[in-house]
Structure formats: structure tokens, C-alpha cells
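Good morning,

Attaching, inline, the C-alpha cells for the sequence recovery test we're adding to the shared suite. The designed sequence is right after.
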């Protein structure tokens, strides 16, 4: 039995039209930016920003856009529920991590040098 979540698709024709319209507006904004190549940079950027804003507006009118907004609200609600550690707890955990890293580095260095000594000096008899 598969536990995969079902794939959600756009169901209504109106939503498909809104998403297609948003894509067309986005492409039109980029095309307008390049077609206005002889104009001032401010005009070109303004045309691009207006086109992108229109595309975003149309996208958020679709069901997919509303689901994205709902997801953002739910995520923000969950972030507010998180109990964040105090400054003291964060400092202590950081110190523990640094201490662990130093201990592991020393352990690995000692292990490496021991294996090097055993292999090269004792087994192979190579003297450096």
C-alpha cells in the first residue's frame, strides 16, 4: 500500500486561465523590458516591475495562489508556537559543539598518526 500524497492539479478552467494569464504577463514584462531598450533605464525597470506585479496579482487570484497564501499563514502560525532557546542556552550549546569538534579533531589526529606509524614504520619499515 502506498502512502504517497495525491498530486493536486488545477481543477477549473478559470484557474487554468488565471495561471496562464499570469505566465503571459510575466513573459510580457520581460519582453517589454527588452523592447524598451532605447528608453531610459527607469522606464524599462518600471515596465518590468509593473508587469511582474500584475502577474503576481493574477496568480494570487487563482486557487493555487490562495493555497500559497494559506500555507504562508499556517507556517507563520507554527513559527509563533516555537519555544526559542534563551541566549544562555544558545551559548552553552554552541560551546558544547565547539568542544566536541575539538575533541573529535584531536581523536582523529591521534588515530591518523597512530595508523601512519603502524603502517609506515612498523609494517613497511619506511623511515622518513
Amino acid at each position: 500500500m502506498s502512502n504517497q500524497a495525491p498530486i493536486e492539479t488545477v481543477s477549473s478552467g478559470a484557474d487554468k486561465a488565471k495561471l496562464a494569464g499570469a505566465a503571459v504577463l510575466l513573459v510580457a514584462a520581460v519582453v517589454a523590458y527588452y523592447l524598451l531598450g532605447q528608453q531610459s533605464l527607469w522606464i524599462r525597470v518600471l515596465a518590468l516591475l509593473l508587469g511582474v506585479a500584475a502577474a503576481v496579482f493574477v496568480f494570487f487570484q487563482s486557487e493555487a495562489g490562495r493555497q500559497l497564501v494559506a500555507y504562508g499563514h499556517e507556517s507563520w502560525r507554527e513559527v509563533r508556537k516555537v519555544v526559542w532557546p534563551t541566549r544562555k542556552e544558545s551559548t552553552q550549546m554552541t560551546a558544547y559543539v565547539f568542544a566536541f569538534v575539538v575533541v573529535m579533531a584531536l581523536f582523529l589526529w591521534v588515530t591518523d598518526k597512530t595508523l601512519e606509524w603502524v603502517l609506515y614504520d612498523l609494517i613497511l619499515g619506511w623511515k622518513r
